UniProtKB/TrEMBL annotation, chains A, B:
Reactions catalysed according to its record: adenylyl-molybdopterin + molybdate = Mo-molybdopterin + AMP + H(+)
Transmembrane segments: none
Name under which the protein is recorded: Molybdopterin molybdenumtransferase
Annotated MoaB/Mog domain residues: 180-318
Keywords, comma-separated and alphabetical: Magnesium, Metal-binding, Molybdenum, Molybdenum cofactor biosynthesis, Transferase
Enzyme class: transferase
Cofactor: Mg(2+)
Taxonomic lineage: Bacteria, Pseudomonadati, Bacteroidota, Cytophagia, Cytophagales
Gene3D superfamilies in the record: MoaB/Mog-like domain, MoeA, C-terminal, domain IV, Molybdopterin biosynthesis moea protein, domain 2, Molybdopterin biosynthesis moea protein, domain 3
Position of the signal peptide: none
Length: 396, 396
């Protein structure tokens, strides 16, 4: 039996290698970027007017009253200041007219007409006007050819905006793996059936399919009965057609827990079986010679979900977000196992507190609907006091 | 000009009323539940074996050595203990045999054969065995007919598991609104074009479309030129066909900022224009008589995104998650405005710290790729010290 830390390390060191595709920009959100994105020109690409108002040359004008000689709209070619003692009206997003270096907001002056000439009569003290104000200087955010986005990041709306700006209408992303979700357990019937007294409806495959769908990964679901020959034959077929298999059930000490032995018979390399954790102790992880990855997760729904969030998601998301919470109530847990307890987080005086929902163990998944993650209580301790800080595995 | 708190209150009080649809279970993830979900039977529906091992009647057996008379698999009809001094091997997920009340794990006994009879020879002290252990009692998690999920919640994988278990193959959800994303600004060209020196490529519509896509809401994008007649005519048409309009640009003090006047001309009720915030001060919000909602957001990308995350997302998500962060560096900001600063959060001794990225203001969206949200610095203060606690608007 290995520790949670070792298990995660092994999982991360044995990931499915994905290929790369080119997709339209908007299809890339949520995916892993497979190329560096460079600035095609400076950010901003020109000295950009940042406020609607009046542009002028700070050192050359009378800061009380400035004659207006022209107007520069956004989207127009750059105009030139003809008389350096005058100004040009400018709109946000416009290129700053040649000869100007400073912009005063409309809020800070009134326009008066004096014969044919319009004047800006400034209503704020001189010392409140700074040379260069309200001008977003060319290249001040990023320089042309700078790397804006690094290969390997997860693409969110902010990255979409950056790629739009540099004209990336087609983006290279990692392909998502083909995933098979396989539940086992003879007590399970499909959700459309009415279970007999000793049966329950299947829920793990739906839960994992939903979680994968949320990160844009499609999965095919299978249900296999607990019969050695059937399991062997079906798993052999499924492994051929998928990149990653997520099994739930059949990995523990039961007389029909055939999964680990069959995976070995199928020639898979076992990378670990059993992790010093509760729930999810019987978890099995391995791979084929061709690099296909198999997670065989315990079948109790809370165990399945914890193992999925802790081990499977980080390999698909390409990121592990480290979060910490403060336990709001003492928990005592004696076994030498890392204990993952469903919690509901809330903020109190700037601290993210976690309220534990101990419930009735790893089959009590109704509990999860009140929670937003698991607190991770380390194996080395037995008493976890209110106010102590622990790791957090978020699932919502 | 109203405060951020008032603006949010008005937005939340004037939401688009959505209709209800029935969708297949897996299509409901990320959507808003439009019916209560009840337990069809007890959770668990029978006294459920929680560990592979031996079931027996605690008060009737010799806790050293127990004869085994039968085996009960998961998915089999309930068996009955014939001899109350004996036990039945049981598998996780099975119904507990009639006459038994306690389960001992395989790890805690060895099986020995004595002639034709198999015995469990128990390897742990009597006092470590508790009556009723490893049995997940019928109805201990939830009772039949109890409300499991309340109408109005957002559906995540945990809720999918619960609905699968009660056989909800078809689920009532709120329909997502039809959204039009409309950018304005004559300086903008499409992402496939090469901009001239004074032009930039459009990015807001892509950023917002990506953000909507992540929550499962489809949007149609439009770009309109800054010309009064065109704006009036096009907006009139678009309002007819969509539930919510998100405009970006054209709402400030510029000479071509026609949007607020045109929206009024179109007969919309203005609910507010200008919010005491930076960025995003010129934001306009209103509705039509038919209850269609219009957000006219400022066009600078950081302003657009902040307004979207702070005001638009909560109306689509049906939830506002209150989060707090601790500023890690002093910020001084004098104007009487709520100041939203892009930050990168990290954990330090159980506290969620926020590192500000001041950048060069509301056009510096390259900045956002380093950040995961905005810290919300209230208008009443001017000095925001390192170590102080403020609200957090997460965008990643």
């Amino acid at each position: 039996m290995i520790s949670v830390e070792e298990a995660l390390k092994i999982v991360l060191a044995n990931q499915h290698e994905t290929t790369v595709s080119e997709v339209p920009l908007l299809s890339s959100v949520g995916r892993i970027l497979a190329e560096n994105i460079y600035a095609d020109r400076d950010f901003p690409p020109f000295n950009r007017v940042a406020m609607d108002g009046l542009a002028f040359c700070f050192d050359e004008v009378d800061l009380q009253k400035i004659a207006i000689e022209n107007i520069q709209f956004a989207g127009e070619a750059q105009k030139t200041l003809q008389d350096i003692s005058k100004g040009i009206e400018v709109m946000t997003g416009a290129i700053l007219p040649l000869g100007c270096d400073t912009v005063l907001r409309y809020e800070d002056f009134n326009i008066q007409q004096d014969g044919k000439v319009k004047f800006a009569c400034i209503s704020i003290p001189n010392e409140e006007i700074k040379k260069g104000q309200n001008v977003h200087l060319q290249g001040s955010d990023r320089k042309a050819e700078e790397v804006l986005l690094q290969k390997g990041i997860k693409i969110s709306p902010a990255e979409i905006a950056v790629m739009a700006t540099v004209g990336k209408s087609i983006v290279k992303v990692q392909n998502t793996p083909k995933i098979a979700l396989i539940s086992t357990g003879d007590e399970l019937v499909d959700i459309e059936e009415t279970p007999l007294a000793y049966q329950i409806r299947t829920s793990n495959a739906y839960m994992l399919a939903a979680a994968l769908q949320q990160i844009g990964v499609a999965a095919t679901t299978f249900h296999l009965i607990d019969e050695e020959k059937v399991l062997y034959q079906k798993l052999k077929e499924i492994i051929e057609s998928y990149d990653i298999l997520l099994l739930s059930g059949g990995v523990s000490a039961g007389k029909k827990d055939f999964v680990p032995a069959i995976l070995t018979d199928l020639g898979l390399e076992k990378l670990f079986h059993k992790v010093a954790q509760k729930p999810g102790k019987p978890m099995w992880f391995g791979k084929t010679k061709a690099g296909k990855i198999i997670f065989a997760l315990p079948g109790n729904p809370v165990s399945t979900f914890l193992c999925f969030c802790k081990y499977v998601l980080p390999t698909l998301n390409s990121e592990i977000k480290h979060e910490e919470v403060i336990l709001d109530k003492e928990i005592i847990f004696k076994p030498d196992l890392t204990y993952f307890v469903p919690v509901k987080t809330y903020f109190e005086a700037g601290k993210m507190m976690a309220k534990p929902f101990l419930g009735s163990g790893s089959a009590d998944f109704a509990n999860l609907t009140d929670c937003d993650g698991f607190v991770e209580l380390p194996a080395e301790k037995q008493v976890f006091k209110a106010g102590e800080i622990f790791g957090f595995v978020r699932f919502r």
